[in-house]
Write a structure and sequence with these properties.
By secondary structure, this protein is mainly α. It has helices at 5-24, 29-50, 64-93, 104-128, 133-140, 157-171, 176-194, 212-218, 223-226, 236-240, 266-285. The relative contact order is 0.14.
């Protein structure tokens, strides 16, 4: 049985309303947003049981969700550790050019659009540059997609994001508070996008927002399919740069990766980019792409 289409809007908007309510009660923005996200994830867990997209694999019944949480915790720690490094470098390199005279709302829209564009570029680069793919492959090395996969990222992605997103935006002089808004927006769209909930959404919505149908295609094991739909919030960048795959024209075969895959244990996954580097050098010596399977 499919979930009613209106429930997708409720899952997106309810955390926004709850965050605003908590902030009005005196909560700082980040704790309020994280509390609202926790409520959203709990609701998605129930919906995965009630309206499963892939029967039998909700995150509440998947032991792999613990490994996902471990990766997410390590990524968060690394991200926080890199923040003062980026903050210390920005004053040395000069003042930014951020339009601080604009209204907070206009600045927020500009920030979300700019960072979403940078996120698109970072994501596409990690798929197309063989040296970065082993780091990102951890996110794709799954046999089922559900809400907890949202935070399944190798800790090395924190360094890539700091270099390609955090530092450039900080150099522009953007207010730090806007980074919090962007993180919360990514959570509120990203968890439903990964969820295994059977929504039947109108076709026009897939080009307005990164919906579950759009993002599930990105997790297809076939490279021809998953090297598309890179957008985090908005599909507009995929449409503009020719990497958008329309859900009505393709369907997910199976989840995962083609060719060499990371090991199943956490320690092996953390070391995988280093072990894959040695394999990549060997592949280059034989004039094959490091992402190609052996002959």
């Amino acid at each position: 049985m499919s979930a009613p289409a209106w429930s997708y809007g409720a899952v997106l908007l309810a955390p926004v309303a709850l965050t605003a309510l908590l902030v009005s009660e005196g909560w700082p923005l980040m704790p309020a947003g994280l509390a609202a996200t926790a409520v959203q994830v709990a609701a998605l867990g129930w919906m995965e049981l009630r309206f499963p997209r892939t029967p039998g694999r909700p995150f509440l019944r998947d032991r792999g969700a613990l490994q996902d949480a471990a990766h997410g915790a390590l990524l968060l720690l690394a991200t926080k550790a890199l923040e003062p490094v980026v903050g210390a470098a920005v004053p040395v390199l000069g003042p930014g050019i951020w339009p601080s005279a604009w209204s907070p709302f206009a600045q927020g829209l500009l920030y979300l659009a700019l960072v979403d564009l940078l996120e698109y570029g970072r994501h596409r680069l990690m798929h197309t540059w063989a040296w970065l793919w082993p780091i990102h492959a951890i996110h794709h090395d799954i046999d089922a997609l559900h809400a907890s996969r949202k935070h399944r990222f190798h800790v090395g992605e924190a360094l890539v994001r700091a270099a390609l997103i955090t530092a450039p935006v900080a150099l522009l002089g953007a207010p730090v508070a806007l980074a919090t808004v962007q993180v919360l927006a990514l959570n509120m769209v990203g968890y439903p996008a990964h969820a295994s909930v059977d929504w039947r959404l109108p076709g026009w919505l897939h080009r307005a927002l990164v919906t579950p149908d759009v993002h599930h295609l990105h997790h297809d094991s076939r490279r021809a399919v998953h090297d598309s739909n890179y957008g985090a919030l908005l599909p507009v960048w995929d449409v503009l740069f020719g990497t958008f795959t329309e859900p009505s024209r393709r369907s997910v075969g199976r989840y995962g990766v083609e060719g060499p895959a990371p090991p199943p244990d956490l320690a092996g996954q953390l070391l995988y980019p280093l072990t894959a580097l040695r394999r990549a050098v060997s592949m280059l010596a034989t004039s094959r792409s490091p992402r190609e399977p052996p002959p």
